[in-house]
Design brief:
heterodimer, A: mainly alpha, 2 domains, 65% helix, disordered N terminus, B: mainly alpha, extended
């Protein structure tokens, strides 16, 4: 809600203008991320079909939650019966998986901060990593129009929501998912993500400890505890990562 | 198969939507009110990798030779070419081939 001059009196920023040009520029900036997103959306659609969701439920979940890892992990570990405790577990897991957005969102203050709340808060609904990355780059190069971030986010949103449909249809059409390796698409996607997150052993304690703690919990306790224990242990171990 | 309870499913989706949206806005809202120090930053940075590693680790151990070979192929393609689309489909193709040869 600040008037633009209030941020830095010496160098008054031009008011953010929310132009279509910046929106389009932002939408185009995330195109290189689309093939990966399509693969992920299809893997999610396939998993949703195998878990017995309807097509409408599958697309609805993507269009509302819009968090791929959370959607897949929750579907994959869906409880036998939906008790209040099980729902609380799902909510906790979702919060844990998306806690990284807290930090990501904080870094968007400079770009969005001089816009009124009725524009910046709806824009943040579309916050996803690729749009965030390209927005930071855009800001570094002197770009100041927040519509850039909205364009990138909306682009990812549309691709993510619609591309679960072909994955769902493929998953629903196949009698035995193992025949086409469909049962391993989600683990394969996660393995690919781990490769890109890997920063060498001294900077990847989160991954190493997360996997180790999950396995140990799986052997000792069973059930779905391995996920929460692995996630908490791994992220705490991340304190020891070298910078 | 998950329990087919449309109301329960919608309730879970609504709650997840709310929780994810809160994580998207709360950091933006808090900045200036709370300092994210280096420790907290490292913890938050390590979270995605920890969650994903914890998710796949049991598959690697319990999935047998077929999933081990398929996921190793995925990792190899990803390390060499860095294209996740190609890596995922290579893994699925290897898994399909293994299933055809050793059903």
């Amino acid at each position: 809600m600040n008037p633009p001059e209030a941020d830095s009196p010496a160098h008054p920023k031009p008011a953010p203008c929310w132009t279509w040009a910046a929106f389009r520029q932002g939408a185009l900036s995330v195109v290189p991320f689309c093939p990966g997103l399509v693969a992920f959306a299809m893997a999610y659609g396939t998993l949703a079909a195998r878990k017995g969701l309807t097509l409408a439920e599958t697309v609805l979940m993507s269009a509302t939650v819009m968090s791929g890892v959370a959607q897949m992990v929750v579907l994959d570990s869906w409880p036998q019966t939906l008790t209040a405790g099980a729902i609380a577990g799902i909510v906790a897991l979702t919060a844990l998986i998306n806690a990284r957005y807290i930090m990501i969102g904080a870094t968007l203050r400079p770009l969005l901060g001089s816009s009124p709340g009725y524009k910046s808060y709806p824009t943040l609904f579309f916050l996803v990593e690729p749009a965030w990355l390209t927005s930071l780059r855009y800001y570094d190069k002197g770009g100041r129009d927040p519509a850039f971030m909205l364009g990138g986010g909306v682009m990812m949103y549309i691709v993510w929501s619609t591309m679960s449909v072909p994955g769902y249809l493929a998953g629903a059409a196949v009698a035995d998912p193992r025949q086409f390796g469909i049962d391993l698409m989600m683990p394969a996607f996660f393995v690919a993500m781990l490769v890109s997150l890997w920063r060498g052993p001294r900077k990847s304690f989160g991954i190493i400890v997360g996997a180790g703690a999950a396995l140990l919990t799986e052997f000792v306790l069973g059930g779905h505890w391995y996920l929460i224990v692995g996630a908490i242990a791994g992220s705490l171990a991340g304190v020891f990562n070298d910078d | 198969m998950i329990e087919k309870d449309a109301f329960g499913f919608l309730l879970v989706i609504a709650l997840m939507t709310l929780v994810v949206y809160v994580t998207r806005i709360v950091g933006y809202w808090l900045i200036g009110r709370l300092v994210i120090g280096p420790r907290l930053r490292r913890i938050l940075e390590a979270l995605p990798g920890a969650v994903i590693a914890a998710t796949v680790a049991p598959t690697l151990v319990h999935g047998g030779m077929r999933s081990l070979v398929a996921l190793a192929a995925t990792a190899l393609v990803m390390i060499l070419i860095r294209k996740d689309f190609l890596a995922v489909f290579t893994g699925a193709a290897v898994a399909a081939a293994m299933f055809a040869v050793f059903p």
